[in-house]
Amino acid sequence: MTRKYRPPTDPTEWLDHAKSNLAHAQAESAEVWYEDLCFDAQQAAEKAIKAVFVHRGERFPFSHDLEELFKILESNGLSVPKYVWSSIELSQFAVVTRYPGFAAPVTKRTHRRAVRLAVGVLRWCERQIK
After folding, report:
1. Per-residue model confidence (pLDDT) at position 62
2. Is a pLDDT exceeding 80 seen at residue 12?
3. Least C-beta-crowded within 10 Å: which of 20, 87, 104, 106?
4. Is residue 67 over pLDDT 80?
5. Average pLDDT in the 57-85 region?
6. Cβ(25)–Cβ(44) under 8 Å?
7. What's the start-to-end Cα distance of the chain, in Å?
8. Sign of the C-alpha dihedral, residues 71, 58, 42, 129?
9. Judging by beta carbons within 10 Å of its beta carbon (0-12, 13-18, 19+), is residue 27 exposed, middle or buried?
10. 11-129 topology per CATH
11. Where exactly are the structural domains of the chain?
């Protein structure tokens, strides 16, 4: 896919990466494990949240912990809605599910919830930037 690349100081670049991860997360296939799809859902949410930091001109930690990121945004004056906060459960997919034997298998139901949460975060983040 050909696309326009922007500098990392442009929040749209972060959102584009988030949308790419979300597309991966939604692409169910018999060859792809739900763990990997949930990792992409977490990445979509994380990058979208970091787009908000970039838009606001704020620094963010190099962390996969969505709760930590939301706490920083709120301490800097941005109100994060409850439904967006619920996405902190995606943080569990940031590391341990990427490697064999560290987590229980992920179910289709869990995967679908992860995608719904990531979609909600991405939409909220887009509204913060527009």
Report:
1. 93
2. yes
3. 104
4. yes
5. 97
6. yes
7. 25
8. positive
9. exposed
10. Four Helix Bundle (Hemerythrin (Met), subunit A) (1.20.120)
11. 11-129
Per the document, the length of the chain is 130
DSSP letter assigned to residue 32: S
Tokens of 51: 């787009």
Residue/partner pairs of 57-66 with CB below 8 Å, 24 or more apart:
64/91, 64/94, 64/95, 65/91, 65/94, 66/42, 66/90, 66/91, 66/121
Helix (H) or strand (E) holding 50, with range, is helix 34-56
User: How many CA atoms, within 13 angstroms, populate the side-chain half-sphere of residue 10?
Assistant: 8
Residue bearing tokens 């990392």: 8
Question: Which residue type, as a one-letter code, is found at position 78?
Answer: L
- CB count in 10 Å sphere of residue 127: 9
Q: Is the pTM of this model over 0.85?
A: yes
Place of tokens 């959102």: 15
